[in-house]
Design brief:
EC number: 7.6.2.9
Strand content: 15-25%
CATH superfamily of the largest domain: P-loop containing nucleotide triphosphate hydrolases
Low-confidence stretches: none
Family: Belongs to the ABC transporter superfamily.
Largest sheet: 6 strands, mixed
Keywords: ATP-binding, Nucleotide-binding, Transport
Mean pLDDT: 90
InterPro entries: AAA+_ATPase (IPR003593), ABC_transporter-like_ATP-bd (IPR003439), ABC_transporter-like_CS (IPR017871), P-loop_NTPase (IPR027417)
Bound molecules: adenosine-5'-triphosphate
Enzyme class: translocase
Order of helices and strands: EEEHEEHEHHHHEHEHEEHHHEHEEEHEEH
Oligomer: single chain
Structural class: alpha/beta
């Protein structure tokens, strides 16, 4: 839908912010522009909606040169979200969100109804509708910014570091919300960030730019992590690239053991049978939810005290979470074994660090034969 074709931006003082950039931005997915400060991300984004005009090259929207469209029509087909949301301080939340529909000539009632619907969609409580922006937290304001950009249902969303000013917990919530909205609405999103973790989490495709506005690599995140194009990209991805790549491998194939799991009301015979050739047993409550670890010889039927067990730590959800999540659980576990649970939080099995290590080696070997890796949650 959006094709950037050999675009250069030279500012009047001679600064080349973007240098012969070509990118095919796929429809209905999130394309992230990432790179160090000053590498031309914002300039590129603003050239898409013509807030900045390219010096050379063309930008095609649905195959048509963007310069052939009236600039107002073009901008209304592209929602725009910036850092700190950029809300109108003298307007209520509902009227901020209704801005573009009102400009398009919708009645006040219809525009406000649409705004209220969008508040719900971006996770804002209806009670905030009559407030003013200064009466909202940073994260809430950012949600209003997203709702405002979506108000006229534009096919394209341009987002310039929208979540950079909020704390990491709120930021994660906003990122998850964006992925959910994208799943539901299927917008074409171009997202600027300088945070590679955010790029890897959100991007279907990630464009890494280097200073001087040149493209270093354009690839899906899994490929970026497995095959960085050069030393610059490798450096930008950071030293823990290998660990991060594990987020793309599912825990579904892990060999989970169920034998070393006993319920708190287990009989002496059940404990003896479970503990024959494992160093630790996982004790669960009567519903099967993990309570903690114990060496088999320390367990006596009928007298198991949850407070005396070794903590079992955070479990991973079997099949849903990634190998990275499974490894993290094992590394943090006092026994070196990770606990897998089902969607209801009941123990689904246990797995040792060693088995996870073997699965990782297998996944890497498989991954190097096929680049068909998709994102896994957790
Ligand atoms: N109006 C301008 N006049 C001259 N140079 C400019 C202008 N706007 C931006 N630049 C320069 O162009 C280059 C790219 O700027 P741009 O804002 O696109 O980068 P960025 O990657 O978005 O940076 P950041 O992550 O710091 O926001 C920088 O060197 C910047 O100083």
């Amino acid at each position: 839908m959006i094709r950037i074709d050999s675009v250069t931006k030279r500012y009047p003082d001679g600064t080349v912010a973007v240098d012969r950039l070509s990118l095919e931005i796929p429809d209905r997915s999130i394309t992230v522009l990432v790179g160090p400060s000053g590498c031309g991300k914002t300039t590129t984004l603003r050239m898409i909606n013509r807030m900045i005009e390219p010096s050379e090259g063309t930008i095609l929207i649905d195959g048509v040169d963007s310069r052939q469209q009236p600039v107002n029509t073009l901008r209304r087909s592209m929602g725009y979200v910036i850092q700190n949301a950029g809300l109108f301080q003298h307007r209520t939340i509902v009227d901020n969100i209704a801005t573009v529909p009102r400009l398009l000539g919708w009645s006040k009632d219809k525009a406000r109804a649409r705004a209220r619907e969008l508040m719900e969609r971006v996770g804002l409580d209806a009670s905030l509708a009559r407030r003013y922006p200064y009466q909202l937290s940073g994260g809430q304001q950012q949600r209003v910014g997203v709702a405002r950009a979506l108000a006229a249902d534009p096919p394209v969303l341009l987002m310039d570091e929208p979540f950079s000013a909020v704390d990491p917990v709120v930021r994660k919530g906003l990122q998850d919300e964006l992925l959910r909205i994208q799943d539901e609405l299927g917008k074409t999103i171009v997202f600027v960030t300088h945070d590679i973790d955010e790029a890897v989490k959100l991007g279907t495709m990630v464009a890494v730019l280097r200073t001087g506005g040149r493209l270093a690599q354009f690839a899906p995140p899994a490929e970026l992590l497995s095959d960085p194009a050069d030393a610059f990209v490798e450096d930008f991805l950071g030293a823990d690239r290998g660990i991060r790549r594990l987020s793309f491998f599912s825990s579904a194939g892990l060999d989970l053991l169920t034998a070393p799991i006993v319920a708190i009301d287990a009989s002496a015979e059940q404990i003896a049978r479970a503990g024959t050739d494992v160093p630790y047993l996982l004790v669960t409550d009567v519903e099967g939810k993990p309570l903690g670890w114990s060496e088999p010889r320390d367990l006596t039927a009928g007298t198991i005290e949850p407070a005396e067990l070794l903590p079992c730590g955070r479990p991973f959800v079997a099949g849903r979470d990634s190998l990275r999540a499974a490894l993290d659980c094992a590394v943090l576990s006092p026994t070196g074994w990770a606990v897998a649970v089902d969607a209801e939080g009941r123990a689904a099995g246990v797995v040792s660090q060693q088995t996870i290590g073997e699965a990782i080696r297998g996944a890497h070997a498989e991954g190097s034969r096929s680049s068909e890796t998709t994102k896994v949650s957790g």
